[in-house]
Amino acid sequence: MKPPTTKEDTTPGLGRYLKDIRNSRGYSLREVERLTGGKISNGYLSQLENGEIARPSAVMLHRLAATYGVDYAVLMERAGFVSESETPANRAPTSVLGELTPDEEEQLLNFLGYLRSQKARK
Length: 122
Known about the structure:
This protein is mainly α.
């Protein structure tokens, strides 16, 4: 019998989440470094995305949130700084789709990354 699924099993890790967002924006690692004025090196971001950095600083997460245009509280939660119950109740996405589950959000980011990669090939 399969064990019950936990939140950790269904929620992508911070690194994967950041990589999905970066890809959905069409940014390379070097582009993110340039956009952050060199404050986040492409090497650091690569290590973060690959799970080699388990606990990034809040400052780095804030810079990434600003660069990617995502909610800082979501990055803090995914990094383990706050739990879901501690995040503000009004953080629902402003999407016309309404509030998304973490799985739906990941799938949309993956699809958007795919669409943008196809657009770049043309």
